[in-house]
Amino acid sequence: MIYLGAHLSSAGGFYKMGLAAVGIEANTFAFFCRNPRGSRAKAADPADLEKLRGLLREGQFGPLVAHAPYIMNPCSKDEGIRNLAAEIMAGDLQLMEYLPGNYYNFHPGSHVGQGVDAGCRMIGDMLNRVLRPDQNTVVLLETMAGKGSEIGGRFEELRQILDMVELQDKVGVCMDTCHVSDAGYDVRSHLDDVLEEFDRVIGLERLKACHINDSMNPLGARKDRHAPIGEGTIGLEGIVGFITHPKLRCLPFILETPHDTPGHGREIALLRREIGER
Ligand code: FE
Ligand code: FE
Ligand code: ZN
Q1: pLDDT above 90: percentage of residues in the chain
Q2: How far is the CA of 215 from the centre of ligand 3 (A)?
Q3: Closest ligand (CA of 226)
Q4: How far is the CA of 78 from the centre of ligand 2 (A)?
Q5: Nearest ligand atom owner, CA of 32
């Protein structure tokens, strides 16, 4: 069975989120460690998290992929905003210690005119401030669409950040199909070439998780607007080719398509049917 899931709400508690995942036949999922729009951390409820750990074990879940809040910008011009990003990530990683062995994904950020090199340096600096040798979470840089001054639209930029990190075993990459397509990497028709390029520039062993989204825009549009699976420019066949690729199929795949949880359940069922798992 491939690991397939969606972004779920943690608002009702972590165990309840696990039950929601089971309800849509997911065996991985993504979530925010806190209110996505605010920066305030929720107090961890160890009993709730322990119940989730039990459920994940019993359900033979694959690795989870927590998502950092969107308000984080580790390469902002403003030192206060950069410090806030570090504080948020440190807090989230503390919570993740209750769910050891999983992933925490973040958007590298927007350099807002400071330039790619300066931006990458700030992101690397933040990671070196926040990562701890004893943490049990691997932090993932997400591939981005390259909208505006966003960093991470090129594999080279992610490599530049990864090269700065002291604790090499605590970092990796999460590939988002909509983002890479919008950035100009043709995962629909030339997936082998894209993976070869990823391997040459970053190293495929660094790729730990994927977001699977169709895209509302054509290859290279630099837009970042997710479409439901099969309703965008990557298409159902493109997405199925992606999740069944021999170099990818053991990774966790997370849907971030514009649906509620039942809608994600229908997409999971559709994909499992397409790949012959039900
Ligand atoms: Fe993301
Ligand atoms: Fe994503
Ligand atoms: Zn996106």
Answers
A1: 95
A2: 9
A3: 3
A4: 25
A5: 1
Q: What is the pLDDT of residues 133-179, one digit of tens each?
A: 999 999 999 999 999 999 999 999 999 999 999 999 999 999 999 99
Picking from 110, 111, 104, the residue whose alpha carbon sits closest to that of residue 174 is 104
To the nearest 10°, report the CA torsion of 129, 73, 256, 174: -40
Query: How does pLDDT run across 225-236, given as a tens digit for each residue?
Result: 999 999 999 999
Strands 226-227 and 252-255: unpaired
Q: Which domains does the chain have, with CATH numbers?
A: 3-275 (3.20.20.150)
- Neighbouring residues of the ion ligand 3, judged by CB less than 5 Å: 224
Distance from residue 275's CA to the centre of ligand 1 (Å): 25
Q: Say how many Å lie between the CA of residue 211 and the centre of ligand 2.
A: 5
Whole-model pTM: value is: 0.97
User: Over 80: is that where the pLDDT of 37 sits?
Assistant: no
Q: Ligand 3 centre from 108 Cα, in Å?
A: 12
Nearest to 222 by CA among 153, 133, 120: 153
| pLDDT per residue as tens digits for the range 61-94 | 999 999 999 999 999 999 999 999 999 999 999 9
| Ligand with an atom nearest the CA of residue 254 | 2
Instruction: Please report the DSSP string for 73-138 in residue order.
Output: -TT-SSHHHHHHHHHHHHHHHHHHTTSTT-EEEE---B-TTS-HHHHHHHHHHHHHHH--TT---E
Interval between CA 106 and ligand 1 midpoint (Å): 6
